[in-house]
Amino acid sequence: MRWVLLPPPPCFSGAVSFGLPTELLPLVRAAFAAATLRSLESKWRTWLAFCSEAKIKALKPTPTQICQFINFLMHHRLSRQSNLQAYISSIATLLRLSDSPVTIDSGLVRLALRGAKRLLAAIPVRRKAALGPSHLLRLRRCLQLQTGLGAALWSLILAGWWAMLRAANLCSLSQANVGTAVLISDLRLGLKEAWISVRLSKTNQFGERRHVVLLPCICKSATAPLCPLCALHHHFSRNSLDIAPPSQPLFSTLQSAGSWMSLTAAHVQRELSQLFHQAGLPRNRFSMHSLRRGGATFARRSGIAIEDIKAIGDWKSDAVHLYAGQQPQVASWAVCRIGAAVQAAF
Ligand SMILES: [Zn+2]
Fold it and tell me: Mind telling me which InterPro entries this protein's record contains (predicted)?
């Protein structure tokens, strides 16, 4: 059997519109965050392609047919149980949105998922590697810090590592769509510390709360190479960000007098990939996510409590709610301890 992807997604804009009148589509689409919608539509495409090939009614599958899909995913594109669960949830959403009488909550499907979990647990997962302080120093040596781009990238790298920021908060998807990227107005830049206020994220899609993180100055007598605050000040002066509009994404470079360009995800990924290569770090093992992961890993090794790390990186868990009111204080205390650990490492 040959598996092909159908070009038009069964989304709110394509051939399948769940019987909704066209003028209602934007309203219903807006219920989903952009990234969620992209992920749903990509999984629906896979499901529809599978159904078309296997002659299955996509909106009225039997439990056995859903198990066949699970089996297909296991052998073709998955190495993680969480991915598998996401595929099944997206089919459930598709069926619900289509008012299909079928639900996927059957005993057989649950059994198949459990079986898949056990089988997948035996396959080693290759996650992106964590970047530690020595890796960061290697990256720094390969950057041209005197250029606007070099200064912006270095500041982005350190902010991502120290504040354990998600890639979506570090840079925008495109020049026009700043999305969840941190803006200049989200930064409070002082001489001794900086605060970044993250308005939107995967776990905070409507901005009900503000996640605030501290970037400390770790310099003692001389400028420390891994100081996130000094990197920010350098980035600000190289790219004249003090006169940029507050709505400009924080990680932007000066193009010409009075004109800035934000670093997009594609641009940063390209630059980082090249940088990893120059620094002798295998490109397939590291990505932008290695910053967030690296900051958390180093903090853990330095003895920072897991709850404090969750508070800094805004990892979703029940415990995070406990920090809602006092998060900046808790996070700042923990970040200062990470600062001490970085200083002690050299
Ligand atoms: Zn400093």
Answer: DNA_brk_join_enz (IPR011010), Integrase-like_cat_sf (IPR013762), Integrase_recombinase_N (IPR010998), Phage_Integrase-like_Recomb (IPR052925)
